[in-house]
Amino acid sequence: MGNLFHHLGNNKESIYYYNKALELSQKINNKSIESSLLVDLGNVYIDLDQKNALKYYVKALKISKKYNFLNTLSVSIGSIGNIFYHKGFHEIAIKNYNEALELSKKIHFKHSEMTQYGNLGDIYRERNELREAEKFLEKALSISREIDNQINECFWTNKIGKLKISQGNIDESLKFFFKALDICRRAKISFLEESILCSLGSAYQKLGNKEISEKYYKKANDIKWDS
């Protein structure tokens, strides 16, 4: 339930259910689930209260190290990198992402590997190192297809489309946005559709096509109010 409410953007309910699950995992002394839930709570708090998010990530890191939960360890290291990224400490964030990436590869944890490539893509995009960013985002997209994760395939396809806009290649960006929208609709991933429609609106706006741009922005707004 925590995951569902997090995807829907309902942070209050998400935190409530994650905490309920955390209490149960502690009661039955299941350290593996406890460490994963601490990461989940950190992921909710990262946009609300980064100090609290870091607290949960560090707790997850300590448990993962103590009990050798390498999957959660790789995620925790990368998640702490996200805190440094948000605070503007890019070099430290990159170090964390690369450490988490190497561990993910070593233990063949594809989901974390994909996430770290995506994190690196995001940070290099912000640094305006667009070729490096594209290289990492393409790797994240490739893994999402390899593991048949359509949510992430849709997410990274949209991200690459946005990168194409930053590169000034609007026509190419549209191909990625329409591909992302197709994946999203076929897989019924409604919570990502609004973002993709906004991306299409932005692309057509840059092309100077106000009528089509407004059409996609309106569709995005309709989804926002319907959700």
Topology (SSEs and partners):
Layout: H1 2-7, H2 11-27, H3 31-45, H4 50-67, H5 70-86, H6 90-106, H7 110-126, H8 130-146, H9 150-166, H10 170-186, H11 190-206, H12 210-226
Helix pairs in contact: 2-3, 3-4, 3-5, 4-5, 5-6, 5-7, 6-7, 7-8, 8-9, 9-10, 9-11, 10-11, 11-12
Task: Tell me about this structure.
The two termini are 17 Å apart. 85% of the residues lie in helices and 0% in strands. The longest helix is centred in the N-terminal third of the chain and has 18 residues, at 50-67. It is globular, with a radius of gyration of 18 Å. The model has no long low-confidence stretch (mean pLDDT 93). The chain is mostly helical. It has 12 helices and no strands. It has a domain at 1-68: Serine Threonine Protein Phosphatase 5, Tetratricopeptide repeat (Alpha Horseshoe). 40% of the residues are buried.
Count of individual beta strands? 0
Shape: globular
CATH homologous superfamily title of the domain at 1-68:
Tetratricopeptide repeat domain
Give the helix proportion (percent range): over 70%
Q: Residue ranges: pLDDT <50 for 5 or more in a row?
A: none
Distance linking N and C termini: 17 Å
Keywords summarizing the entry:
12 helices; about 0% strand; Serine Threonine Protein Phosphatase 5, Tetratricopeptide repeat; single chain; mainly alpha; about 230 residues
What's a concise summary of this model?
By secondary structure, the protein is mainly alpha-helical.
